[in-house]
Design goal:
There is one protein chain. By secondary structure, the chain is mainly beta. It has one domain. The strands form two sheets. Strands 1, 2, 3, 4, 5, 6, 7, 8, 9, 10, 13, 14, 15 and 16 form a 14-stranded mixed beta sheet that branches. The longest helix is centred in the middle third of the chain and has 11 residues. The two termini are about 20 Å apart.
Length: about 210
């Protein structure tokens, strides 16, 4: 196994500033002309070279002044404090788009748009997600507090289920769509209220989504 080969199988929650349905998922411009987002994932199985990543969690906060592809983004990555030095280095290489075929994963694509990258944070990440139920909770003391819930029918208040099928995407194959609320305090200040969220399985390696 090459030292730069990696695989991640994980559960993900993402909450962004767009309206339900997030135009960015369809190669359209963001709802408000800019993008703010909070992300968290738990790795069920993973490795980078010979370094195992099973059970570790990561989170991040993002901001772009316009559409993501127009650049000038800002990012802060939070890595599970339980990770060893080897695991921290491995996760940061993956999350910053290194050891990856250009354009193959969301991490690599996003990395090409950053203008400001904050020093990584190593902290306890309290994160739970239920993809089928479209619920999630992420909390990193002093940095981040977010949650995801199902979309509700405005008349009946029943849970509304809709999914995004992305067979050629660089993040997931199927994502359950919901809504979310997130606040971050350091090193970036974001406030997302009743906006787009998705809940999905990630199955990625250095060449992209594994089918």
């Amino acid at each position: 196994m090459a030292d730069t080969e990696w695989t991640i199988r994980a559960h993900e929650f993402l909450n962004c500033s767009c309206s339900y349905g997030c135009p960015c998922q369809f190669n359209a411009l963001p709802t408000h002309g800019y993008c703010r987002a909070v992300f968290a994932m738990k790795i069920n199985q993973g490795h980078h070279g010979k370094t195992k990543l099973d059970g570790l969690k990561v989170a991040a906060m993002f901001a772009w002044p316009k559409a993501i592809h127009e650049g000038h983004g800002e990012v802060a990555v939070i890595v599970d404090k339980r990770a060893t030095e080897e695991q921290r280095n491995a996760l940061l290489r993956i999350l910053t788009g290194q050891d990856t075929k250009p354009g193959a994963t969301i991490f690599n694509v996003f990395a090409s748009t950053y203008e400001k990258v904050h020093d990584p944070i190593f902290a306890e990440i309290d994160f739970d997600v239920n993809i089928n139920a479209r619920t999630a909770r992420v909390k990193v003391s002093g940095h981040m507090d977010g949650r995801g819930e199902p979309i509700l029918n405005p008349v009946t208040k029943a849970e509304h289920r809709v999914r995004i099928d992305s067979p050629q995407g660089f993040e997931y194959l199927i994502a359950e769509v919901g809504r979310g609320w997130s606040k971050t305090t350091a090193p970036m200040q974001l406030n997302l209220t009743d906006s787009y969220s998705h809940f999905c399985e990630l199955n990625l390696n250095q060449n992209g989504v594994i089918h």
